[in-house]
Design brief:
Elements: E1 2-3, H1 7-16, E2 25-26, H2 43-64
Parallel strand pairs: 1-2
Length: 65
């Protein structure tokens, strides 16, 4: 079981290590606001952006190996 954000990378890594992978992602992100409030900046959006950037870097590093 792993975060939905990095399921693809985690499954690939464990598969390369010889494990049989059965994906079971958790913590999917859902839209928090409806209407115009979705365009108002908040700290949760900043945290989501930081997590996404870290995952992007992790994916790039994994593919370079």
């Amino acid at each position: 079981m792993t975060s939905a954000l990095h399921m693809r990378r985690a499954a690939a890594e464990f598969g390369r290590a010889g494990f049989q992978v059965i994906p079971a992602a958790t913590d999917y992100s859902e839209p928090r606001f409806a209407g115009g409030l979705q365009w108002v900046p908040d700290t949760l959006a900043l945290d989501d952006a930081a997590r996404s950037m870290k995952e992007l870097v992790g994916t790039l590093v994994t593919e370079v190996r």
